[in-house]
Design goal:
Elements (H helix, E strand, L loop, with lengths): L1 E5 L6 E7 L6 E5 L5 E2 L8 E5 L2 E6 L2 E5 L2 E2 L9 E13 L2 E14 L11 H9 L3 E2 L4 E8 L1 E7 L10 E5 L12 E5 L2 E7 L10 E12 L2 E14 L12 E2 L4
């Protein structure tokens, strides 16, 4: 199943790590006995500039899929009442916290077919989800206020084009800092700015790498590698007020 968010032009919601400001979308499930829901399988985000700030999130229309595990003894011919409380923060010049109580009557049958309207979009979303980096190798070294992320392609790999790294956790990489890309022989080196508000326990570089031309056939891939060397907090970014929070009546 998937949560569909359709944004008005110029508005956005947030990824699991929102970047400089914001909050991720959440789903609180209310499920029949025996049914279990996995976490949101997050699509690759976009870097969204709001003045000097950079947020990680989504514009336009996005589907946020989750996997439901249905018990084997679910009664054929019955319906499972799936419910969820969904909350998100949507922002433009201001930010508005919103939410909805959603329900889905899920029929139990011996076989299933894709939903006539949403089956294909959900399948496309699942196919495009970031997967572990395949074929390439990755390594990361802390160099004070920077992290050197080195991506080594397999023989015959095509140029990935522009690369961007999105950390899974806040307090690791400064969202609004520049990410400089360079070549070192056949390797691609992405220099990442360490976060100004550096969180403790930064021992691994974990997140999503997006590539304009693809990495191993995918536009986005996940990495999770040990961080060698050492890091210190980066310089303080430009002081800019976050978008105002508008509380609806």
């Amino acid at each position: 199943v998937a949560l569909r968010l359709a944004h008005r032009e110029g508005w956005h919601t947030y990824w699991r790590n929102p970047g400089d400001t914001g909050l991720p979308t959440t789903i609180e499930w209310k499920l029949p006995a025996g049914v279990q829901a996995g976490p949101i399988d997050w699509p690759a985000p976009h870097a969204l500039a709001v003045g000097p700030l950079v947020n990680y999130g989504f514009e336009g229309e996005v589907l946020l899929p989750s996997t439901l595990a249905i018990p084997a003894d679910a009664k054929t011919g019955s319906e499972l009442a799936i419910a969820a409380r969904v909350e998100w923060l949507v922002c433009k010049e201001t930010c508005i916290p919103e939410g909805a109580d959603l329900t889905l009557a899920l029929p139990v049958a011996p076989a299933s077919a894709p939903h006539p309207q949403w089956g294909a979009p959900i399948a496309a979303t699942l196919a495009a989800l970031p997967r572990p980096l395949a074929g390439w190798t990755a390594g990361a070294t802390g160099e004070g206020q920077r992290v050197r992320l080195v991506l080594t392609p397999p023989a015959g790999a095509t140029d990935p084009g522009k690369l961007r790294f999105f950390p899974h956790e806040e307090g690791r990489i400064e969202a609004s800092g520049a990410q400089a890309l360079a070549r070192d022989g056949d390797r691609y080196v992405l220099m990442l700015p360490v976060a100004y508000q550096l969180a403790p326990g930064f021992t691994r570089v974990a997140g999503v790498v997006t590539a304009a031309n693809g990495l191993g056939g995918a536009k986005a891939a996940t990495i999770d590698v040990p961080l060698a060397g050492s890091v210190v907090a980066g310089p303080k970014p430009v002081d800019t007020p976050a978008p105002a929070l508008a509380i609806p009546a």
